[in-house]
Amino acid sequence: MTTAIFTFTFLPLFLLFSSTFTSITANNVISETCKECAQKNPSLSYKFCVTSLQADPNSQGADLRQLGLISMKLVQHNVTNTRRFIKHLLKNEELDKFVRMYLDDCLDLYTDAIPSIKQAVKDYKMKDNRHANIEVSSVAGAATTCEDGFEERPGLVSPLTKRNNEMFQLCVIALRIINMVSSPFY
Question: What pTM, to 2 d.p., does this model score?
Answer without folding.
Answer: 0.83
